[in-house]
């Protein structure tokens, strides 16, 4: 079975696969080639997770700072909340 394309994985799926690779490496007597392949995939998964986290952080910053990058419905909802709170 072919491993899923990393770009198609959610953050949670990528983390789960990283954990699976780690457990496999810890419990199997892998060959050097198997170990290198697992390390390579793990490195790609780690980079993918870091990218997804950076995107999430940017979204959170945009929401927290009410930047123009925020989609219009979110800005309108924020204005309504501000009016009811104030």
Describe this structure in words.
The chain is an all-alpha fold and 86 residues long. It has a single domain (6-85), classed as Helix Hairpins (Orthogonal Bundle). Helix content is 76%, strand content 0%.
Helix content: over 70%
Structural class determined from secondary elements: mainly alpha
**Biggest sheet descriptor:** none
- Just give the CATH class: Mainly Alpha
Structural domains: how many: 1
Average pLDDT metric: 86
Number of helices: 3
Oligomeric state, counting identical vs distinct chains = single chain
Order of helices and strands: HHH
CATH architecture: Orthogonal Bundle
Q: Which blocks of ≥5 consecutive residues have pLDDT under 50? A: none
Name the beta content range: under 5%
CATH topology title: Helix Hairpins
- Specify the overall morphology: rod-shaped
Can you count the beta strands?
A: 0
Distance, first to last CA:
57 Å
Please specify the SSE layout and strand pairing.
Blueprint: H1 11-27, H2 32-65, H3 72-85
Can you tag this structure with a few keywords?
86 residues, mainly alpha, Helix Hairpins, 76% helix, rod-shaped
Q: Summarize this, please?
A:
The chain has 86 residues and is an all-alpha fold. Helix content is 76%, strand content 0%.
């Amino acid at each position: 079975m072919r491993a899923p394309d990393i770009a198609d994985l959610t953050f949670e799926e990528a983390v789960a696969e990283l954990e699976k690779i780690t457990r496999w490496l810890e419990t199997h007597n892998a060959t050097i080639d198997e170990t290198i392949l697992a390390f390579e995939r793990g490195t790609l998964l780690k980079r993918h997770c870091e990218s997804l986290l950076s995107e999430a952080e940017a979204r959170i910053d945009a929401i927290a700072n009410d930047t123009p990058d925020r989609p219009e419905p979110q800005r309108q909802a924020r204005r309504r909340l501000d009016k009811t709170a104030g």
